[in-house]
Amino acid sequence: MPQPNVLIIDDEPLMRISIADALKDEGCQVKVAATGLEGVDLIKKEPFEIVISDLRLPGMDGLQILQTCKEVSPKTGVIVITAHGSVETAVGAIKMGAYDYITKPFSMDELLMIVNRLLKVLELEDENRSLREELEGRFSFKGLLGKNDKMREVLEKIKLVAPTDSTVLILGESGTGKELVANAIHHNSPRRDGAFIKVSCAALPESLLETELFGHERGAFTGALRQRKGRFELAHQGTLFLDEIGEISPLVQVKLLRVLQERQFERVGGDQTIEVDVRLICATQRDLKKEVQAGRFREDLFYRLSVVPVQLPPLRERKEDVLVLAEHFLGGFGLRAGKRVKAFSQRAQGLLIRYSFPGNVRELENTVERAVTLSHENKEIEPWDLCGFPSCPYLGGPPQPTCGFCSEGVPMAEKKTASADRLDVAREQFERQYIVKALERTKDNKTEAAKLLGLSRKALWEKCKRYGITKETNGAEE
Ligand SMILES: Nc1ncnc2c1ncn2[C@@H]1O[C@H](COP(=O)(O)OP(=O)(O)OP(=O)(O)O)[C@@H](O)[C@H]1O
Ligand SMILES: [Mg+2]
After folding, report:
1. Dihedral sign, Cα of residue 229, residue 230, residue 236, residue 239
2. In the chain, what percentage of residues exceed pLDDT 70?
3. Are 146 and 139 in contact (CB under 8 A)?
4. What are 279's strand-pairing partners?
5. How much is the pLDDT for 477?
6. What pLDDT shows up at residue 27?
7. How many angstroms does the Cα of residue 344 sit away from the middle of ligand 2?
């Protein structure tokens, strides 16, 4: 982003000057305001990429500034500065949509790190917006989205190969979209009105796979009470998609090779030669070339299958696609759940982009589905909606060992374990235990427990939700 526009709101002159100098050195254009009112005036007048505001200010405080900023200029990223010991308010600010907070005293390097991270997110958001407009055109094909260079090559290749009868071999890790590609090819081929039949080769033992593919005659084996057509016959004039082709046994490999060479075969236990007109698409997570070298896969069959190879890159190698896909899924799930879910907050976007997604697009899709389920209507999706842990490190909890985002090191989690924030974590843990105890003492009666704790029932309910205190785990009401 060339010369991002940054506004600093702080009543301490020294703080204003030092932040302004540090940001100017980084190439930012900086404006400063000494009061909340002055700051809000500026926000209303000109667009800022980033607003850095102290939380405690005379007159209008940081939370009010944040609220105005979200209303007037929702794209602006807000970083709040808090005094040591007022982390509760900072967490509140984050819930209201601030990107991050920094606790006084802090070093300029710490602040610059947050600013740079936010700028990266804003840049990606910007790219994403322009992309959305182009999406339906250049970067998508039958529900297959991809903006990354390799994905665009894949989409071009699919468009070219779809109208032909060539055999296609789709390669890629689990969840990268192999089946979706096979579908797109079939539905854009002249065979689209014919059948699209899928066989998962890994799901069946050798003999069953053989009869599944080629069918059998009556009496071919014990239990074969009548003749049965195989998938090749059922896919006549259509497409047969053989998933996990790397798993087939040498015997099935030989039979498959023959069909590919001669377009004919016999049913198991039969001698009538059957001719079929089938287009074959295969997919595998395995490196088939290596399988050939290791002698587990026939070389002649490999060449027959990979007339047109399509290699799908893993999601971690196409970060540009993460937000595009996430928004696409958000729209779909929101619609299905009948929920008006707004968008991903800046922090949630940052988290999505940083995460490696070992389960690829499928994992991203599931993550978004969970987030839609857990998020509130008309609210942005936040990191804790993505991971599904109510005591997520972003809300002051400890890193969750079973959470992928946490195990890859959520920046907040790192921050929370840094010495400045340890007291805060300890306090929250203590508060959680204290609430659990109160609920135990009142035999899960929330009204009684709230009285005991000196809280309103609503405040107690919110705390239970935040700390993940559920009836099953801790004896509290849901
Ligand atoms: N480029 C993409 N655009 C939109 N959705 C995608 C894309 N790639 C994958 N998906 C979605 O991700 C999910 C997983 O894709 P798919 O089942 O095709 O993966 P796969 O490679 O066949 O996985 P596996 O090897 O585990 O069978 C599907 O719901 C699919 O619709
Ligand atoms: Mg699949």
Report:
1. positive
2. 90
3. yes
4. 239
5. 38
6. 92
7. 28
Q: Ligand 1, atom 9: nearest CA belongs to which residue?
A: 177
**Ligand 1 atom showing the smallest separation from residue 151 Cα:** 1
What ligand has the least distance to the C-alpha of 181?
Answer: 1
- Say yes or no to pLDDT of 387 above 70: yes
Decide if 214 contacts 268 (C-beta within 8 A). Answer: yes
Q: What is the SS3 string spanning 148-177?
A: CHHHHHHHHHHHHHCCCCCCEEEECCCCCC
Candidates 3.90.770.10, 3.40.630.30, 1.10.730.10, 1.10.10.60; correct CATH number of 418-478? Answer: 1.10.10.60
Please check whether the two domains, 5-133 and 149-311, share a CATH topology: yes
Q: Compute, in angstroms, the gap from residue 182 CA to the centroid of ligand 2.
A: 9
Q: Measured between alpha carbons, how far is 275 from 72 in angstroms, rounded to an integer?
A: 68
Can you give the pLDDT at residue 342? 76
Return the CATH architecture of domain 318-417.
Orthogonal Bundle (1.10)
pLDDT digit string, tens, across residues 45-54: 998 999 999 9
Does the CB atom of residue 144 touch ligand 1 within 6 A? Answer: yes
> From the alpha carbon of 170, which atom of ligand 1 is closest?
21
186 touches 169 (CB < 8 A): no
Q: What percent of the chain has pLDDT over 90?
A: 56
Residue 474's pLDDT is what? 45
Our answer on whether the CB atom of 180 is closer than 6 Å to any ligand 1 atom is yes
Q: What is the Å distance from ligand 2's center to 279 Cα?
A: 18
Check pLDDT > 70 for residue 139: no
Radius of gyration of the chain from Cα atoms?
29
Q: Is the minimum distance from the CB of 364 to ligand 1 under 6 angstroms?
A: no
CA–centroid distance, residue 191 to ligand 1 (Å): 22
- Whether 153 and 310 have beta carbons less than 8 Å apart is answered as no
| pLDDT confidence bin for 120, thresholds 50/70/90 | confident
Domain boundaries, the chain: 5-133, 149-311, 318-417, 418-478
Does residue 142's CB lie within 6 angstroms of at least one atom of ligand 1? no
Ligand nearest to the CA of 182: 1
* Ligand 1 pocket check for 176: Cβ under 6 Å: yes
Confidence (pTM): 0.65
| Mean pLDDT of the 206-231 span | 92
Domain 5-133 has CATH 3.40.50.2300: yes
Q: Which CATH class is domain 149-311?
A: alpha beta
pLDDT of 467 > 90? The answer is no
